[in-house]
Specification:
The complex is a heterodimer of chains A (about 600) and B (about 90). Chain A has about 600 residues and is mainly alpha-helical. Chain A has a domain of about 400 residues: Sodium/glucose cotransporter. Helix content of chain A is about 70%, strand content about 0%. Chain B has about 90 residues and is mostly helical.
Amino acid sequence: MKGNFIDNLPKVYGIYTGGFIGFIIIMAIGEQMGMTAKAIGVCFVAFTIAIYALIGWLSRTAQADAYYVAGRQVPTVFNGMATAADWMSGASFVAMAGGIYFKGYGYMALLVGWTGGYVLVATLLAPYLRKFGCYTVPDFIGTRYGGNLTRLLAVIVLTVASFTYVTAQINATGTIASVALDIPFQYAVYVGLVSILLCSMLGGMRGVTWTQVAQYIVLIVAYLLPVFWISNKMGAGFFPHFMLADEVARIGELEQQFGFVKNSAADLANVPKGLAGITKAHSAVNATPWAFISLALAMMMGTASLPHVMMRYFTTPSVKAARKSVGWSLFFIFLLYSSAPMLATLSKLSLIDPSLPTGIIGKSIAEVQAIDWYQNWNAANLMFVSDFNGNGTLELNEFFMGGKAVVLATPEIAGLPYVISGLVAAGGMAAAMSTADGLILAIANAISHDVYYKIIDPKAETAKRLVVARVLLVVIGFAAATIAALEIQGILGSVIWAFDFAMSGLFFPLVLGVWWKRANKEGACAGMALGLLSGLAYLIWVRNGGSGFLGITQLTFGIFGSAVSLVSMVVVSLITSAPNAATQKMVDEVRVPSGRSIIGKQ
Amino acid sequence: MSKQAQHWEKTRGLLMVTLAIWFVFSIGIFLFGAEMNSMTGPFGYPLTYWFTCQGSLGIFVILIFWFANRQEKIDEEFGFSERGDD
């Protein structure tokens, strides 16, 4: 191919997408010719990981600019795809449709929160941090406010939030690898980790960028293809997003007809851990306004504070491109998020509607227990039925499922070929890997650039800095994998905590750094330290039986943390002296797109 | 008022408008979630349900592109836009 790599990007990824679709077709033919389900699963996961590793190797670099910010030349649309993959984690891919399936409206606050946050990113932060020209988020805090303590505190908040998040992602790669490759979870976690490191170790941000684009393509194909296929197969409509109103209404009718019977505690004790029944209405408003709004708000502010997302906008060629790129990111995220409720609707209807061939409610218990897919997913501990009332037929309240089953099992329930299940496994793996890569890189870069280079050894040569960065990448990866192997908390819970930690410590120090000239070093330190500590204290208090206040739960503790952060930052800034003239001038320059970046100038 | 101060004033104005629209579709309408859900929204979905699964999300996408274009205009007006590369 002629010309440089960047100009050829559409062609390169076009060929890649064509190759991937060709691979799916080959697998489908293989299935017809008698390839086993297990072999297909192994092929999908192994083939995609091999491609990512190849991209990672091709992107290897010895330059700091390429390693930290991909040479600042990633075009807007491709950066949007990479951000979408960076953003959509294993939880978004595997657990989101399940959450909507079980909790309905109350859960959909997450959809609104995880998209609305990008408006804050685009307006308040991304373009200004891009103009700043920093390598990492603590780099901005450290330079804007000055002093090693501010830098160090920013690194601590970043590490707490990102580390909480990354263990969940490695857990997800382990879960998928253990199912697809049929190996024990404790080992699968490390298989996942090695694949993650293959993408990021040699090329840093450059490697991660180009693998994330590849991973986005895999994950979006793997999510949309089954949704459209199932919808067409069920006769629900060829474009589900616009055509499922009747199905949503039908679920409402069935809910009325069956009623939500409450199970006794003794009955529920028999249900395997982690499985749930349908206890909430599908499309009715089932949460108080404040419960919905507080969760959405926490996720929005968390989005704007998470460093692995913010650092993606450091890689665009210009400030203008950074703004547009946020729009593209959200567009690519929207493609998946708007499909999750459709998948939940299709999945629920196909299971509970007695007039559909796949419906199991109203069938006899013995009949359901004899279904192939029921036996498979029951063995995988993701489905369970029990005849609580002893009448021999399955009632709505007697059917239990794991949240992951909505994405993983629906293709099989709807009678799609196994090749789709293999594709979904590859998609889930891509989603979890891409997020884990972004997070591990965010932590390792912050420690290598901000702690090692800026604080410990400012004279270190590039080669040495990059060795330190890579060693940290491996160490942090293994630490996260080791914690993930212990399986302390669920995937989704720890993801939401990460948002709350990030917003408690970083939201106001970042935003006020651009929008309030009077904000100074002392204020920023107080805001970060007190915000993080009060958020953490609130979480511990509520976890240990504390009643909480204002309806702030352990999922939204960031609202309390960030409020403390804001108040302490403003008060401390005002009682200490204003930032010096050089800093004020720096803020002025950050506010206009033209001119050279702040950090490059020094 | 200096060129830079005027630029910042317009930028702040745009921020307020953008955040106001954002507030309506991320928080405002959900204060009336229960009341709105009895109405029929686009494509026949219950209205609040539609906003949570498509409406608000899509509006955010459009809002960001609209904001980016407006901000570019403001930057150009005061001669603060970047040269060349995109």
